[in-house]
């Protein structure tokens, strides 16, 4: 599909015939072609097809084949089906659709879709009768009809809008050149237009759909009005300021043309707000007794919203929410919600005169209107029943024009959208509300509305903390061997919560190296909690979650508590190497809790910090090569290599050299570090957790915990299945490493000194001790896998290389890591009950401190570590160049 466009070949009037192999073919009938794109609304396409094929709109049925499948027809019934079809044909130029239905197109249906005029060329593309467009005399509004239609002229004063009405369809050409407006036509006929200002043959243009726009008011157009399906949204915005205003009402289009009066010149900002017909959300008036709805009162500057503008599924459901006297609801809350949606769907505003738990009475906000409703509680049936209902309005819809929206209405709209698309972002929802309701909302308003909507759908975030004690008991019962601990203060506010599943504990103790990465990730909620994680590395260098904790404040005390719980869960005397971000200062806490442990600094965080701290001036190859040299310092196994790399850094930047030396090389370099080899891990260990939390940002604390458990369960099941097909002794990554060393070993000369010691001659002579599993190149001891010199010895002696590999890298160890699965926890994902337990909360969410709130601007500030620093070539100082240097040399 080129540039998002797709050509639909519309087949109609024929029939399907099945071939011997089940393939379907379409015989007879006729074909038409229509251009669509990803922004084309399904309802607009449907009415275009009905019009083109002369079918009754309500009976139209559309089907299509999947690419490469001519045996099964797929129904096309909704906007979602349509988007899916476009996606299926993303790599196609054309697609076949098959249209059927009852013959006879109802032209009155066009009145429902008058907004299709936005996007059509009314001048060139509509006149299919070959009649050239004729303009009126000097200036004014010219209407050029088709010769096939009778005409009727409507004369009007230049200062007033032209309201053009008709009972039939004609082709029109409209141009606005002067403030004075005249409508002229051939003397032999009368001018006329329709509420739908385009011909029934418009589908033949095969034009693309462009998003709806509203024309500007208060501007003078100097060129014919032309709305083009091929135009982009940017083009449409530009045209708003140079075209006449169109207002689509019940009687057809109203064209408003204003002269070039200097008094009417306004700023672009004000013009935009008035011409788009949308209302800023700051104008909301909050009142519990008023149901406030969108404003369409300015009929001269906006396309009036119609029922068809509302989402189809919502309107169909909401209009049937109130049926009449005797209708029962489960509660007063359900009745209020149904009444509010009913009012939105039927476009009126009501006021509640009585509104309590036992009775609700409402009337239309317009004085004298006959619409009334009264409902009350039925104690015997435990329901809420409509007692009186007068559904007729005598106000002519005036209440809708003066109504505004409430937060509850916004939440109900967002909730319906989240049911269909749970992963929609605030900006996507805001665009949808603007498109469907004509209401422009700010990002913050939509985000808050989403929080309330998700709370209604998923349960209260605050109340979900009350389920933590239940979870601690349930997870231990369903997964014996699991450790879960909860710590709250005297006011029942959460301070710390720790859990480590039995599957993680068993996997670490039986299959992983004694190496754990410590990380912290924000839970991205209003309560500012932090997620602490302990992550191991499996035999194939994959990350393996071991333990989690949710804390109120990240500090030395909370980290020490987390390490104490981790030590209790693992209950091992084995020396463990812990790796953390140097800037968190966890070294003392780790060595205090785990007496025989080793502590190192994360290479990922060190490298990021190194980039941030790079300051000029730079010499030689410049700053771009410094990160690579820094890694060579970390991986150097000999003193000579370490000094050589650090000297290179010094030659480029003395400041960078000083920074490298002062960050304790014994805690991160291969040369000096005494713990498990780890510094080849340069990835962000916390990234999977951060992504998971971001994807579940609006979820409750229990749902986030459930997501972590599901992530671990899926990881174990996937890797267990994957490893069941492995046939090698070592895991795939380690097997590749051994094969690479075997290639290097070819051609090396081996001399026997004893049964244990061997000399291997390469460019240098190395001594291999197979009993101690050492080589003077130091790579064997460092990595746990035989180096090329050792592999050469094994080839010469006939020994098996796998017998000298670390057991931590075998497939057996890998399978042991993932041998225990996570048992499901029934009820963990259940929404929080809204009634009954709010007054007896066992656990309350943390209270973020002022410092946590104040730190937010600093967290959003980003620094580009690769941004070039200007330095002076004269004085060698950063921050200026030679031309502006003021130093005295």
Folded structure, characterized:
This protein is an alpha+beta fold and about 900 residues long. It has 6 domains: about 1-105, Phosphatidylinositol 3-kinase Catalytic Subunit, Chain A, domain 1 (Ubiquitin-like (UB roll), Roll), CATH 3.10.20.90; about 120-275, no CATH class; about 280-455, no CATH class; about 465-600 and about 685-705, Nucleotidyltransferase, domain 5, CATH 3.30.420; about 605-665; about 730-810, no CATH class. The chain is built from 27 helices and 28 strands. The protein has a 7-stranded mixed beta sheet, with helices on both faces. Helix 9 crosses helix 10 (about 445-460). About 35% of the residues are buried. Residues about 115-310, about 835-840 and about 855-865 have low confidence and may be disordered.
What is this structure's SSE topology?
Layout: E1 5-12, E2 15-18, E3 24-27, E4 30-37, H1 42-53, E5 61-65, E6 73-75, H2 79-88, E7 94-100, E8 141-142, E9 162-163, E10 183-184, H3 233-240, E11 245-249, E12 252-256, H4 268-275, H5 312-318, E13 328-329, H6 332-346, E14 350-355, E15 359-364, E16 372-378, E17 383-390, H7 398-401, H8 407-420, H9 426-437, H10 443-458, H11 461-464, H12 468-478, E18 483-488, E19 494-500, H13 502-511, E20 515-522, E21 530-537, E22 543-551, H14 556-570, E23 577-580, H15 587-593, E24 598-601, H16 603-612, H17 626-635, H18 639-652, H19 654-662, H20 687-695, H21 701-723, H22 732-745, E25 749-752, E26 757-761, E27 765-769, E28 774-775, H23 779-783, H24 788-797, H25 811-817, H26 850-854, H27 856-860
Parallel strand pairs: 1-7, 8-10, 20-23, 23-24
Antiparallel strand pairs: 1-4, 2-3, 5-6, 5-7, 9-12, 11-12, 13-17, 14-15, 15-16, 16-17, 18-19, 19-22, 20-21, 21-22, 25-26, 26-27, 27-28
Helix pairs in contact: 5-6, 8-10, 9-10, 13-25, 16-17, 17-18, 18-19, 22-24
């Amino acid at each position: 599909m080129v540039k998002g466009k797709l050509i639909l070949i519309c087949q109609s009037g024929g029939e399907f015939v099945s071939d011997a192999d089940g393939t379907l073919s379409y015989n007879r009938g006729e074909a038409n072609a229509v251009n669509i794109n990803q922004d084309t609304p399904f309802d607009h396409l449907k009415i275009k097809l009905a019009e083109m094929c002369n079918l009754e709109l309500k009976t139209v049925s559309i089907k299509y084949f999947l690419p490469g499948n001519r045996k099964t027809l797929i129904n096309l019934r909704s906007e979602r089906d349509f988007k899916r079809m476009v996606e299926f044909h993303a790599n196609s130029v054309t697609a076949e659709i098959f249209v059927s239905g009852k013959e006879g197109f109802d032209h009155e249906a066009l009145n429902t879709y008058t907004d299709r005029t936005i996007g059509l060329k009314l001048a060139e593309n509509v006149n299919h009768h070959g009649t050239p467009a004729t303009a009126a005399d000097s200036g004014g509004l010219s209407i050029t009809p088709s010769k096939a239609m009778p005409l009727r002229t409507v004369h009007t004063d230049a200062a007033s809008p032209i309201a053009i009405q008709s009972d039939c369809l004609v082709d029109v050409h409209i141009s606005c050149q002067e403030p004075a407006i005249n409508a002229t036509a051939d003397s032999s006929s009368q001018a006329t237009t329709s509420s739908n200002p385009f011909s029934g043959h418009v589908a033949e243009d095969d034009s693309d759909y462009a998003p709806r726009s509203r024309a500007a008011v208060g501007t003078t157009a100097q060129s014919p009005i032309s709305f083009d399906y091929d135009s982009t949204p940017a083009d449409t915005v530009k045209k708003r300021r140079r075209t006449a205003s169109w207002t689509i009402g019940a009687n057809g289009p109203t064209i408003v043309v204003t002269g070039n009066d200097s008094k009417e010149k306004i700023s672009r900002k004000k013009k935009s707000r008035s011409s788009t017909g949308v209302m800023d959300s700051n104008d909301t008036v909050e009142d519990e007794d008023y149901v406030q709805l969108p404003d369409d009162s300015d009929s001269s500057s906006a396309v009036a919203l119609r029922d068809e503008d509302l989402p189809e599924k919502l309107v169909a459901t909401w209009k049937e929410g109130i049926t009449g006297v005797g209708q029962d609801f489960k509660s007063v809350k359900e009745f209020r919600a149904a009444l509010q949606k009913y009012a939105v769907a039927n476009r009126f505003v009501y006021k509640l005169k009585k509104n309590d738990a036992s009775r609700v009475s409402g009337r239309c906000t317009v004085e004298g209107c006959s619409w009334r409703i009264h409902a009350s509680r039925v104690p015997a049936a435990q329901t809420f029943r409509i007692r009186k209902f007068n559904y007729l309005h005598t106000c002519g819809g005036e209440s809708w024009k003066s109504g505004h929206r409430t937060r509850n209405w916004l939440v109900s709209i967002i909730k319906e959208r989240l049911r269909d698309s749970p992963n929609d972002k605030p900006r996507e929802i805001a665009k949808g509300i603007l498109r469907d309701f004509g209401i422009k909302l700010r990002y913050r308003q939509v985000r808050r509305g989403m929080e309330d909507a998700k709370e209604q759908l998923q349960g209260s975030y605050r109340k979900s903390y009350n389920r933590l004690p239940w979870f601690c008991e349930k997870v231990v019962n369903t997964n014996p061997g699991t450790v879960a601990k909860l710590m709250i203060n005297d006011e029942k506010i959460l301070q710390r919560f720790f859990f480590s599943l039995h599957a993680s504990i068993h996997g670490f103790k039986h299959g992983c190296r004694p190496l754990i990465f410590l990380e912290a990730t924000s839970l991205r909620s209003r309560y500012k909690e932090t997620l602490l994680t302990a992550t191991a590395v499996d035999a194939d260098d994959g990350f393996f979650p071991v333990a989690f904790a949710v804390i109120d404040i990240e500090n030395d005390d909370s980290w020490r508590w987390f390490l104490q719980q981790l030590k209790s869960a693992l209950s091992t005397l084995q020396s463990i190497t812990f790796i953390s971000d140097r800037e968190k200062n966890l070294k003392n806490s780790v060595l205090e809790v785990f007496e025989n442990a080793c502590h190192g600094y994360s290479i990922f965080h060190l490298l990021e910090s190194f980039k941030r701290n790079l300051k000029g001036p730079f010499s030689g190859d410049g700053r771009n090569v410094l990160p690579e040299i820094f890694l060579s310092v970390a991986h150097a196994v000999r003193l000579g290599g370490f000094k050589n790399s650090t000297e290179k850094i010094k030659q480029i930047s003395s400041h960078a050299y000083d920074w490298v030396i002062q960050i304790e090389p014994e805690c991160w370099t291969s040369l000096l570090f005494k713990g498990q080899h780890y510094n080849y891990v340069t990835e962000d260990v916390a990234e999977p957790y951060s992504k998971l939390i971001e994807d579940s940002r609006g979820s409750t604390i229990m749902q986030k915990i459930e997501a972590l458990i599901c992530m671990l369960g899926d990881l174990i099941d996937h890797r267990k299945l994957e490893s069941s097909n492995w046939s090698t002794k070592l895991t795939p990554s380690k097997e590749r490493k051994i094969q690479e060393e075997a290639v290097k070993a070819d051609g090396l000369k081996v001399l026997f000194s004893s049964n244990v010691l061997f000399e291997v001659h390469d460019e240098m002579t190395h001594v291999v001790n197979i009993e101690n599993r050492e080589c003077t190149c130091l790579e064997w001891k460092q990595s746990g896998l035989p180096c090329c010199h050792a592999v050469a010895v094994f080839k010469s002696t006939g020994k098996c290389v796998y017998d000298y590999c670390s057991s931590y890298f075998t497939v057996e160890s890998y399978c042991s890591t993932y041998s225990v699965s996570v048992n499901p926890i029934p009820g963990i994902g259940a929404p929080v009950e809204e009634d009954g337990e709010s007054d007896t909360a066992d656990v309350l969410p943390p209270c973020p401190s002022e410092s946590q709130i104040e730190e937010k601007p600093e967290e959003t500030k980003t620094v580009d570590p690769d941004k070039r620093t200007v330095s002076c070539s004269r004085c060698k100082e950063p921050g200026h160049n030679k031309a502006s240097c003021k130093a005295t040399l």
